[in-house]
Amino acid sequence: MAAPHSPPRSPSPPLFGPGRTGYDHIQYSEDFTNTLMRELVKSSSSSKHSGITITTKPGPANASGNAITLAEIDRASLPELSTGVLPLALDDTRRIYNSALPSVRLTHPGGWLEGGSGPHNAEPLIREYMQQLMQQHTFRSQASLQKFIKDETRRQAVELKSRMQDRQEAIEQNEKAVKEIQQLQAQRETEKGVENRMLESAKRRKANK
Q1: Which of 2, 64, 9, 4 is nearest to 32 (CA)?
Q2: Are 101 and 160 in contact (CB under 8 A)?
Q3: Listed residue (95, 125, 92) closest to 107, CA to CA
Q4: In 68-92, which positions are buried (b, 16+ CB within 10 angstroms) versus exposed (e)?
Q5: Sign of the CA dihedral 56, 62, 66, 70?
Q6: Which pLDDT band, with edges at 50, 70 and 90, does 208 fall under?
Q7: What are phi and psi of 19, to 5 degrees?
């Protein structure tokens, strides 16, 4: 019988951005992590985004409300969320912006998967992070920088999905192990009942002699 495994505990740090400032203050929620796990495991590369996409170029597509530039967003319309109320349920109506994950929407452009603005809205952190990128990589153009960010975000999304698949497998192994233990316990209780009845029968036969 397989021993129970501990599923990975870490939920979902920001997919791409300047560090984890403030992220460690978000309370861990197993329910949220399990819901996120199920959404990611069942999603595929063909899954469609259902929220608002952030784009860098204004255009006719934006008129439908499915795309918007950062400059067009009214900052006052973004919800104010402290880390104490996070994580928000994935079906929370304040989640309207697409993330790198087709099945997960964000409350803020570039925010945390748990909800909230994340560190992306902290301008000093963004500048510092971009300086680090420029020092570590050679970008010949703005387009090459954007491609790097897009590729890195996609890579981290794939990595997160892989971690959640590992988590689901661990949970399934746990459930199987628990079921086997319960079956063994039930079997032992049945055996004890038979043994007790045999002992009682033997005592009665001895008393009748």
Answers
A1: 9
A2: yes
A3: 95
A4: beeeeeeeeebbebebeebbbebee
A5: positive
A6: confident
A7: 80, -165
Read off the pLDDT band of 58 (50, 70, 90): low
> Over 80: is that where the pLDDT of 85 sits?
yes
Over residues 106-126, the pLDDT tens digits come to 999 888 889 988 765 555 556
With the C-alpha atoms ordered 121, 124, 129, 131, is the resulting torsion angle positive or negative? Answer: positive
Note the pLDDT of residue 3.
44
**Radius of gyration, CA atoms only, the chain:** 26
The phi and psi torsions of 102 (rounded to 5 degrees) equal -55, -30
Q: Which residues contact 180 (CB under 8 A, 6 or more apart)?
A: 1, 2
Tokens 């021993």 belong to which residue? Answer: 3
DSSP, residue by residue, the chain:
-PPP----------SSSS--TTGGGSPP-HHHHHHHHHHHHH--TTPPP-SBEEESS--GGGGGTSEEEGGGS-GGGS----GGGPSPPTT-TT--EE-SSTT-EESSTT--TTSS--GGG-HHHHHHHHHHHHHHS--SSHHHHHHHHHHHHHHHHHHHHHHHHHHHHHHHHHHHHHHHHHHHHHHHHHHHHHHHHHHHHHHHHHHH-
Q: Output the pTM of the full model.
A: 0.64
* Lowest pLDDT segment from 13-27, 74-88, 130-144, 152-166: 13-27
